[in-house]
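User: I'll paste a sequence; please echo it back and then give the predicted structure.

Assistant: Echoing your sequence first, then the prediction.
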Amino acid sequence: MSLFISSCLSTRNCLRKMSQLPPESLLASPVSEGTNPRVESLDNLSMDSFWLEVENIKQSAEVEQEECSLADVKAQEEGEAEAEWLQDTGLSNLLGDCASEHDNILLLSTLTKTQAAAVQRRLDTYSRSRRRNKHPVRDVRDIFGVVSSEVTATEKKESRPDQLWHNRQTSNVHRTETQDYSCTVRNPGKEEMFNMDVAYSEQAAVLLKGSFLSESRKLKDGNALTKFKIPKGRLGVTRIGDLSAQDMKKIPTLALIELTALCDILGLELKRNKAAKLKTTEKRLFGVPLNTLLENDQKLLPSTKVPLLLQALLSCLEKRGLETEGILRVSGSQTRIKSLEQKLERDFYTGLFRWDEVHQNDVSGLLKRFIRELPAPLLTAEYLPAFAAVQNIPDLKQRLQALNLLILILPEPNRNTLKALLEFLSKVVARENNNKMNLWNVSTVMAPNLFMHKGLPNKIPEGKEKQLAEGAADVVRMMIHYQDLLWTVSSFLVAQVRKLNESNSKRYQFCDKRIKHLLRKIHADKDKVEKKQAEPSKVVKIHASFLLKDSLEVHLNNATRVADVLRQFQKNMCQHGWNIVNTVNLLKCNNSMECTNLLLYEVGGNIGEHCLDPDTYLLDLYHINPHAEWIIKQNPSYPWLF
């Protein structure tokens, strides 16, 4: 897998080659089966925005006469990439003797078969490259205990990515009677289910074993995009931000292992770049690392999660630029943009900068410049190739699965900044009738700013420019259109976090024989729920210390949801005459059952803190985490008015 864009602004040859390409109408790409020629024709025309943006970036670099020293990126030796991967997943101790076995066993005990196979595959590759070492690399099976040779051989055979890929391409075996995870278009426009209960790699393995062939869907027509719906299980849906910082720190590691397992099943190589070393800047806004920007901004506003400059740029465009025809596409004056950048560096934090005097197209130019000037790409140098490689996955649902995992892997500052940007881009698309910028237009304009970076070497294969450009724009299009889905934490990952927390508290001994069976389990919330349905009802206590000294007793049955408890709490408040609506905007007692200002949290037990979906069935949750406390809190999105 070498099809990705990680080009450098100052790599002049690359940009010159792009800008000298013939018009898109002459770059006719092969039309695949089932492709709508009309849509393909529209796509070719719309790609002009991409090449125009590349030319604008080139001109911007020439105005500044900017010189960037690129770090020499040496080809990694065999085993080096695997060692880095094991380091990132917290399993580097497997490379040594038996250093910290407990930490390894906790993580490994949560893995599915496909995830464990991905770990073993990296260990095997590393072992082959280090056969001369005195200390051999340990086998995952040594930790979990010896599985029968028949089972082991079968799992090894099934987990080979090349064999699975071959099966997908050539096998005519009849489909097995199992759950259909495929995403073939049967009824265009109809909602399709996006399963987050079962690990994506496990779903992919089922598809490949049964030879479920799905169509490649890369339509650029926004109206033709498939609608996906996440089926809400009895434990509800968890969004990014619903989990505590403590639990979210575990998610990137689990997501990286799952992404690797998914790529193995699909036959894709997961490559990563090394971050280039750039000269430090004395600026305070442009060209400053996200972490540094946020540290400075948090001195002014402690709760800041997105750089204040980016917030100001987006706010200015939302107020005055959303209706402007060609916003983002029409370039402002490069000279004015450079001058505005200097004024912002001088006056932004003093509050003297006059946003109302700036032309909207210049503001959009500043926005794109801010993204490009980050010392490291917003999508990170390490995972930019992986984001671009998503285009190589034939099935749309699996492309979204990979993107969902990549979003979870991103550092929190990058993820929050990307979300703020995508939310703004969605607002631009929503005003398409006025600004003439549809989803594909916006995607083609923003793709070069996200996928081309001066700190990375030129990796564009000869003759692949058009294919890579369309692929990059397609990835941006998916991130804009499906951002609500992509910012969801899959149920199987939440279940793995719970398992990690449980294992950490129980402190299983290394010699525990039960561990050898854990590789053969798929840990999903629904599995645990089914095992604990014996107790039909339960009385629990709900705390709301910000309003009440005493707790509220609630009788739970199989139909009790979070929304029901919040309504009961509100009703109880009103019946006792505690009508505090007019003073704090918390509760509405005037014959209204609105309780959107209140949230119910699960705290403790096998989770740090978890903001619950209103449709979560609480008796099921109690069975999953009986030692947790449930606390009602005010929605942080609403102002605290006490």
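The radius of gyration is 26 Å. The mean pLDDT is 75.
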